[in-house]
Design brief:
This protein is of the alpha/beta class and 467 residues long. It contains 15 helices and 13 strands. The chain has one domain: Alpha-Beta Barrel (TIM Barrel). It is 39% helix and 18% strand. The site of beta-D-fucopyranose (FCB) has 12 residues, from loops.
Length: 467
């Protein structure tokens, strides 16, 4: 597979600069009225994942949190462990009240594989009953559920037997999803098979920041391929057995070349294909096509992948600038220029990139859900503007013809942010980790969310009245 085939363009055109969307101005955002563009039935809600909020989960991450790098530094940078997290396992009623207080009509959350199947083939009915009761309670409250089958954590028995480095994990994931379909069937309104296949591979197998802590380009590419095969099988089962729409939550990270140098542009384009396009293209082509130049090329037909998305889920947070760096395993270095506005983790705040992303994949002609979007903001003071500007990005995309059906803010509440521990706070609600009851308190963005939810309801009520 050549570079031009991979990126879908004549080699020469790789050197042609791509449009770089301009930042929105403060006036544009202040003058926006997203509710006038959002379609009826739009899903407006928040997202979480099991390991990050439930507490008491036991999986490959638990082991990772309890161990260190060879130089003694803890795997979790701030030395924390997920532990009791937000104790959502025992406090679902509180989380549900928060969603209601927000005026949300949608919640994206995940089930914990290790809880449901603590040993191969042993199904934990008690845990399944609890999840089922959450689905029922959400439905009774008029809140739709998008349920993710796999959000980063593997049961220990799966991880110990090779994790995503083994084809057996594809079979085991398939078997797990079959049980999910049997246990929960049509209760989730939307199914999401996998959260962020590329992030799983890059963080765990290229950067070595997440379990299993490898730094190996070849394994990275193979892991993406296996996870996508897992997705394809899961999608077929869930669709056949539940009849509900099935998709994936894909992490999109805009990558802009740092300079005009042809090398930076080629590297940015190849990285863009690897990070952003590969997972989307396979729905169209039915092929897994991944290339890490000089290391590995995968070009394999996986027929189940073709048409395996009923919707495209996009997790959008930021963009990076890309500079060539042959010392790095990815041959590039990503950074955020000093002049850019950043969140507490140093991520570029770039709402225009969300509009750009939505326009980029409009051509797929699939419904799009923004399955995650949010910012690390410890004071909570900057989140209101973040939320407004990203809702404006969606408004613009809708006016430009994108079929956006939902927005899930990451996150409902502060939670365990993987290798960053509890330090970054992404929650619409702040969680007091010193309090045994994990008290939740509204941050200033809650008022913005509520106001928008009210306007959206009023606008769709008015539209219904007219109809
Ligand atoms: C995404 C993950 C989610 C959360 C946010 C901040 O990549 O899907 O679990 O960690 O980032």
């Amino acid at each position: 597979m050549s570079l031009s085939k991979l990126t879908g363009m004549a080699l020469g055109s790789i050197f042609v600069p791509r449009a770089r969307p301009k930042d929105f101005t403060a006036e544009e955002v202040a003058g926006s009225a997203p509710e006038t563009a959002f379609p009826r039935g739009f899903l407006l809600g928040a997202a979480t994942s099991s390991h990050q909020v439930e507490g008491g989960t036991e999986n490959d991450w638990t082991d990772w949190e309890n161990t260190s790098y060879p130089d003694g530094k803890p795997h979790i940078h701030d030395g924390t462990k997920s532990g009791l997290a937000c104790d959502s396992w025992n406090r679902f009623d509180q989380d549900l009240r928060l969603l209601q207080e927000l005026g949300a009509n949608a919640y994206r959350w995940s089930v914990e594989w290790a809880r449901l199947e603590p040993e191969e083939g042993r199904w934990n009915q008690e845990a399944a009953d609890r999840y089922k009761s959450w689905m029922d309670q959400l439905a009774a409250a008029g809140i739709s559920s998008m349920v993710t089958a796999y959000h980063f954590t593997l049961p220990r028995w799966v991880a110990k037997d090779g994790g995503w480095q083994s084809d057996r994990t594809i079979d085991r994931f398939e078997a797990f999803v079959r049980r999910l379909a049997g246990a929960f069937g049509k209760l989730p309104d939307l199914w999401c098979t996998v959260n962020e296949p590329t992030v799983i591979a890059i963080q765990g197998y290229l950067r070595g920041d997440w379990p299993p802590g490898l730094k190996n380009e070849v394994e990275t590419a193979r892991v993406i391929a296996r996870v996508m095969k897992g997705h394809a099988r899961a999608a077929r089962i869930l669709r056949e057995r539940t009849g509900k729409p099935v998709g994936i939550a894909h992490h999109v990270r805009l990558l802009h070349p740092a300079t005009w140098s042809p090398l930076d542009r080629v590297i940015a384009r190849v990285s863009d294909h690897f990070v952003n396009d590969a997972v989307v293209d396979c729905h169209r082509t039915g092929r897994i096509q991944i290339m890490i130049p000089g290391k590995i090329t995968i070009d394999e037909a996986v027929p189940d992948l073709k048409g395996s998305y009923d919707y495209l889920g996009i997790n959008y947070y930021t963009r990076d600038h890309v500079r060539t760096d042959f010392k790095d395993p990815s041959m590039s270095r990503q950074f955020v220029p000093a002049s850019r506005p950043k969140n507490d983790l140093g991520w570029d705040i770039y709402p225009a990139g969300l509009h750009h992303t939505l326009m980029r994949w409009k051509r797929l002609k699939l419904p799009i859900y923004i399955t995650e979007n949010g910012m690390a903001d410890n004071t909570g003071d900057r989140r209101p503007e973040f939320l407004r500007s990203h809702l404006y990005a969606i408004e613009r995309a809708l006016r430009d013809g994108a079929d956006v059906r939902g927005y899930y803010h990451w996150s409902l509440l502060d939670n365990f942010e993987w290798a960053e521990g509890f330090t970054p706070r992404f929650g619409l609600y702040r969680v007091d980790y010193d309090d045994p009851d994990r008290k939740r308190t509204a941050t200033p963005a809650v008022a913005v969310f509520q106001e928008f939810a009210r306007k959206l309801r009023a606008a769709s009520g008015a539209a219904a009245g007219k109809g």
